[in-house]
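2024-03-11 09:14:02 INFO queue: dequeued item Dolichyl-phosphate-mannose-protein mannosyltransferase, len=395
2024-03-11 09:14:02 INFO validating residues
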Amino acid sequence: MARVLTGDADAPGRAPTARRRPRYPRPAVRAALLGHLAVRAAGVLLLAGWAGPVGAAHRLDGMWDAHWYRQIALHGYAGTPPVPGPYGPYEAYAFFPGYPLLVRAAALLLPVGAAALAVAWAASLAAAGGIFAVAARLYGDRAGVCAAVLWGVLPYAVVESAAYSEPLFTAFAAWSVHAALRRRWVAAGLLCAAAGLTRPTGAALALAVAAAALLEWARPGPGAAGRRDPRALAGAVLAPLGCAGFVAWVGWRKGRWDGYFRVQDAWQSRFDLGRSTLLAFRRLLTAAEPVWLADVVAAGTLLAAVLLLALSALRRQPPVLLLYSAAMLALALGDAAYFTSRARFLLPAFGLLLPLATALARTRGRAVPAVLLGAAALLSAAYGGHVVLVYPDAP
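2024-03-11 09:14:37 INFO prediction written
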C-alpha cells in the first residue's frame, strides 16, 4: 500500500493534513520527471513522424490559441488586431498575459516559435514536479511518480507539449497547492496570483487557496493567547489578485466593468450552469449524424472527472485540493463554449488523478504500472496526433 508521509498515516482511505516537511528521495524525483519526459517525448515523436519535424513544430507553436499567444508576445495586446467572427470580433484581450510575457522574454534569445515551445515544455516539467510533490506528500513517493506520469498520458496531454498556457498554469497551481499543504500561506497566495495571471481558471484556484487560508486564519493558534496567523490572511488576500487584476485591467481598457466578459462573447464563452453540456450529451446520444471522436473523448473525460471527484471526496483529500478540483470541474461543466475543449480545461485539475495514482502505487512490483502507463502513453500520443493533425477545430 502506498506509504503516507504525513498526518493521519494509519487512517485507511484518508488523505492526511500535511504537517511536517518530507524529504523526497532523489531517485523518486528523478523517476517522476524522467517518466513525464518520456511519455511526452513519445507524443512529440509520433507527431514528428506523422507530419514531419517542421510540420509538427508548426502545429504545436501556431495552432489556434498558440497563434494568439505568439501575436501577444510579439505585438502586445494593443498591437494584435482583432479577427472578425460570427458573434463579434475575436480579440487578444481574451487571453491572459502570464504565458505570452514569458514567451516574449525567451524570444530575446530564441525565435518566437521556439521560445513559445521552450516555455511550455519547461512549464510542463515544473508542473510534473509540483504534481509529484503534492501526491508524494499525501500518499508517498510511488504515488507521486505515478501521478506525474499520469498527467502526461491524459487524452489531451498533447497540449502539455504545445504553445498553450495550460502547462504554466498547472505548474503554478500545483506548487501553490503544495505551499498551502505546508501552510506556507504567503507563498501559496503569490503562486496563486501568478496562476491567475495565466488563465481565467485562476479563479478556481483562488477560491480554493483563499478558502483554505481563511479556515486556517479563523482557527485560534496554540497557547493561551490563541493568536491567529496573519500570514494565512495575507495568503487569502493575495490569492485572487492576479485573475481579478487582469479582468479589471481589461475592463478599464474597454471602458466598462464587464469588458473582459464581453470580449469572451465572441467565443460564446459564458457560465450557463451546465445547460450547454447537457445539450451536448443529448446530441451525442440522440442525434443521427456522425460525431467526431473528440466529442466522445470530451464526454468520457467529463464523466470520469465526476467519478474521480467523488472518489477524492471519499478519500478525504485536503480541503484546498478537493475544493480546487471541484471548482475546476464546475467551470468545465458549466461553460457554454466549445464542448470538446472541456477535456483540455480539466488538464490542470491534477487532484482528480490522485485516486488513480494511489491505485497504481498499491500494485506490487513495477511491471503493472509500467505496462499500464506505457499503453496509456501510446494511446495518448495517437489521440494527440488526431487532435493536432486531423480534428478541424481547437483542442
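2024-03-11 09:14:37 INFO annotate: Residues 26-220+229-389 form one domain.
2024-03-11 09:14:38 INFO item closed
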